[in-house]
Specification:
Elements (H helix, E strand, L loop, with lengths): L2 H10 L6 H4 L2 E5 L8 H5 L3 E10 L13 E2 L3 H10 L4 E6 L7 H22 L7 E3 L9 H19 L4 E4 L1 H5 L6 H4 L4 E4 L9 H6 L5 E8 L8 E6 L10
């Protein structure tokens, strides 16, 4: 049975979670990959994908300035992946800021609106939405960063009707004080740690729950995508990160 068929059956609840489902590999992509040949990707062993739907809110985006806000490639990536039989979800690359609680809250709400609007405009998605929490953080102490994250995930959950996944790494999550609060509240972890046998997991192994997705390289190669692409391993049955 092809991997994409296994994914579809697990998502539909027809096939129980198995070791096969837990060995699935996926990619995450954005406008920086340009146009993707999704039919070609669909012929590979890639079994799931996440596409950037938005990036920062504009003024505080310190990486590739001027290329923030909604990702103009998101809708076509969503449609292309789904047509190729690859379950896909959306992520938001946060650029969190706020020198006061009021400013941190307003910044988080603004980025949540940009993301939710982009996702809802493009239509149905298969996998849970994702908040990408990584440095740089601007004028945020630990408490205000935790507030920023909480406001974003709660607002997006209300808008989209599903609890987001949190993407981060050991160093970036340390800026929150290595809080366990989000792990204990059921937010699944997508951890980034490249070129190692197993990832370093923040928040005391995510409060003992471990990682659900591991981004293990930023220099992968996949047929249908020009240049390098991030690749990921699934640590749980895919049904546990689905939007159902």
């Amino acid at each position: 049975m092809r991997i994409v068929a296994i994914v579809a059956l697990v998502l539909l609840g027809i096939l129980p979670a198995t070791a096969d489902a837990k060995r699935l590999r996926g990619i995450d992509i954005s406008r920086f990959q340009g146009s993707i040949d999704w039919p070609a990707v669909g012929k590979t062993k890639i079994a799931f994908a996440f596409a950037q739907a938005s990036r920062g809110s504009g003024d505080d985006c310190l990486v590739r300035a001027g290329r923030c806000g909604a990702d103009n490639f998101y809708a076509r990536n969503l449609a292309g992946a789904r047509e190729a039989g690859i379950p896909i979800g959306a992520y938001h690359r946060a650029f969190a800021s706020g020198r006061t609680r009021r400013l941190a809250k307003a910044d988080s709400q603004k980025e949540a609106r940009i993301f939710s609007k982009a996702v809802l405009a493009a239509g149905r998605f298969d996998l849970r939405p994702v908040l990408d929490v990584e440095s740089p953080f601007t004028e945020l102490d630990e408490e205000r960063l935790r507030l920023w994250i909480r406001i974003w995930v709660e607002r997006v959950e209300r808008k989209l009707g599903v609890k987001p996944i949190i993407y981060t790494n050991l160093t970036s999550w340390g800026a929150t004080g290595n809080t366990l609060k989000f792990a204990r509240r059921g937010y699944r972890l997508w951890v980034a740690n490249f070129d190692v046998p197993s990832p370093a997991v923040p928040a005391e192994n995510w409060a003992g729950r471990g990682w659900s997705i591991w981004q293990f390289t930023s220099s992968g190669n996949v047929r249908g995508i020009t240049g390098n692409v991030d690749k990921n391993k699934l640590g749980v049955p895919i049904g546990r990160i689905s939007a159902r």
